[in-house]
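Researcher: I've been going back and forth with a colleague about how Protoheme IX farnesyltransferase might be arranged in three dimensions. Neither of us has a model we trust, so I'd like an independent prediction. The organism is Pseudovibrio denitrificans, in case that matters for your notes. Sequence below.
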Amino acid sequence: MTMLDQTQGLQEDVTDLGGRGSVSDYIALLKPRVMSLVVFTAAVGLVMAPGNQHPFLSFISILCIAIGGGASGALNMWWDADIDAVMSRTKKRPIPAGKITREEAFAFGMVLSFGSVLTLGLVANWVAAGLLAFTIFFYVVIYTMWLKRSTPQNIVIGGAAGALPPMVGWAAVTGDVTLVSIALFMITFTWTPPHFWALALVKNGDYQEAGVPMLPVVAGETATRHQIVLYSLLLLPVGMSPYFLGFASAFFGVGSAILGLVFLGYAIRVWKVREGDAAKKAAMSLFKFSLFYLMLIFAGLLAENMIGPV
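Model: Here is an independent structure prediction for Protoheme IX farnesyltransferase. You can compare it with whatever you and your colleague have in mind.
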């Protein structure tokens, strides 16, 4: 039996399961860890945007972006139920665990998608709503349905979806897209490949088992390590771009440079250490630090805009 036959069979199996989902199971569909990152970067974009928005409308705007991000996660799990059932990292998700059916997940995701976009358009503006709709579409249709199973560059192109929330937050206040919001987009966009490929090195066996053409599966772990270093090099100036473009202080510039160099150091360690458990440990260390890196970059921008440049 081929892997395609196996995954198709699993997809049919998980379709018949479910119907016993609790509130916590539906929350799990929203990918709350990913959503928290979406909320934070979107909030930074909103706070940095020039202009005035009532605090209550700002709260609703961020809530809509969070719900839209969660809807994307639910629809991702709906489509990926077959491969989620194969991979150790995802087999306990609500659908493969038999707690929620694929149909329930699809309905849940679609209701949240339309509701979040419509509400954002009404309370903020339709530019922000359009960007949120595009974010959901890009993540679900372009990345999940197409790129993820067809190209090892899936995470590079698909990373655009995860990088859009600060642009949505910015547009919720201003109603437009500017160089500042594009710079915020580029930081997360450039950060995504080395962040995700580090995890892919650790979970390479899972992706092979599921037949997902992640870069380590198709090009090999050595090529993946090269790409991680290259993107980490690129991330160094991109992470400093708020300073170069004049909307962050020299203090931020120095701090982002230090963070970028540490990130690069972790990436070089991944490139050097290639055997056994030490290699997986190095990759996981980079993955964990990458989360810390993005949080601090955006936290620095948030602090400068709330209390002023240092």
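Researcher: What would you highlight for our discussion?
Model: I'd start with this: Residues 1-17 have pLDDT under 50 and may be disordered. After that, consider the following. Residues 190-310 form one domain.
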